[in-house]
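Sample pair:
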Amino acid sequence: MFDALLLTQEDKRTFAQVSQITEADLPEGEVLVEVAYSSLNYKDGLAVTGAGKIIRQFPMVPGIDFAGVVCESTDARYQVGDQVILTGWGVGENHWGGMAQKARVKADWLVPMPQGCDAAKAMMIGTAGLTAMLCVQALQQAGITPQSGDILVTGASGGVGSVAVTLLANAGYRVVACSGRVEQNAPLLRELGAAEVIDRSELEQDAKPLEAQRWAGVVDTVGNKILAKALAQMQYGGAAAICGLAGGFALPTTVMPFILRGVSLLGIDSVSCPFEKRKAAWEAVIKALPAHFYQQACQQISLAEVPDFANQIIQGQVTGRVLVKL
């Protein structure tokens, strides 16, 4: 028997409880992993609280990320004792996830632990860090350099945003961090490297088709009006890497930024990202993140504390990354 956070549903209400399960309860897969750490993402928060329609079948073990050690494998790519990471692939949504002391998954979903990393560090980075790295790489591939101008990061105090701020600042970009709780979050965001912190209210008003040029690049985790406003303020030839919808999935914009300023909209997906691209991004983010990130932008909780923190994360009251120790 081992511990797992089990989600059940009754009368359309979701209940989360730490329960004892066995290996026989786990779904099918080629690799059984002893989980050392998971993490709490915004999507996990929606799943655990039932605030979003994330879970497709109950009961469910949430946790879209985990890192640990292989304890059984029928796939030649992974041997007993190998350290591995899993992010994405619908795990924690339609396949039991990482908020349990053991997980059984498909070998195709795993990535070997990069050199210089361990399970705790991997989950301090997690889906959020992988996504942030893919965003930064996309901007760089689009030709956005530190000399191009300011980079806006929306939802900067969240998991993806805080890693993006750190990565961009460490690479020499001037980062403007947008947050809903400036007084509370500005000190940490500046420590992570933000040159300027602005309140999200500056970007929440309806956007004109085009506004004064302000941003060379954008990493957006929010969507909706904030992304529309940012697009209207893009510099000529700028690029926006978009990866989230914390503010809603709508995009009330026009074609003007794209056809009159040559702006590029770069969609970033880390859930089904191919293995080679995923592996390269993991290796890159391990090398790029400075040591101070792990001390400043991460906090650790127990499995029993997850429901409480899930409520906080969907209310925008959590800053940085939340590590779940199994």
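The chain has two domains: 2-113+296-325, 126-267.
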